[in-house]
Structures are given as C-alpha cells and as structure tokens.
Amino acid sequence: YLAYGTEAWQVYNEIMPEREEYIVDKKYNSAFYKTDLREYLNSKNIDTIILTGMQTEYCIDATLKSAFDYKYKIIIPEETNTTFDNEYLTGEKLFEFYNYKIWNKRFAKVMPVQEVLNLFEK
Fold this sequence. Notes:
The protein is of the alpha/beta class.
C-alpha cells in the first residue's frame, strides 16, 4: 500500500503544497503520532481540521480519532477520502461505513464539498 518514502506515498503535483505551507512528515497511521502536528495547530490557534486523504479505515480513521481526543472539531468533505478493497469489504463499502456510520455526527461532520468550500467565504 502506501509505504513511507515509496512513489505511492508521494504528494501528487496537482495538490503539491506551496513552499510556505506546513507539511506533516507522517510515518504512522495517525498524523498526530510522533509528529509536531498538535503543537503546530495549537501555535496557530487552529481548532478545526478539514480531513481528507487515503486509506479511510487506517490513516484517516486514526488521525480523526486522535484529533477528536485532542478536542479538535473535524470536518470530512464528502468523497475526499478513499481506500482499497480488502478480503471482507469493497473500498466503496468501507468508505460508506466509516464516513456515514462511524464518523458522521459522532466524531466529525461529514459535509458536501461545496458546503465546506462555502465555510471559507464566511
């Protein structure tokens, strides 16, 4: 899958961070584990995280629950995380289960992308 340092682990050019943007050098499931992400967010008085990415049931879930434990508000834009099929469920079923049965209204707000974008206009 997405092993640290492999080609699959690299950020796509189309969404490459700008030079001044903060980057988490993540090596474990949670973006908070053994990183300075929490310290960075706190130093900027950031209390809300918009979480997107790869491997719904691993990295996204672990990061979301760590953020929840640290009392951050979490927004998941619909259709902005994904995963692979496994021996039990398709990636699509895993996505639906985590986004709409586990996370939404418990740990995070799962919202249409346009609603999330509208938050930036306020």
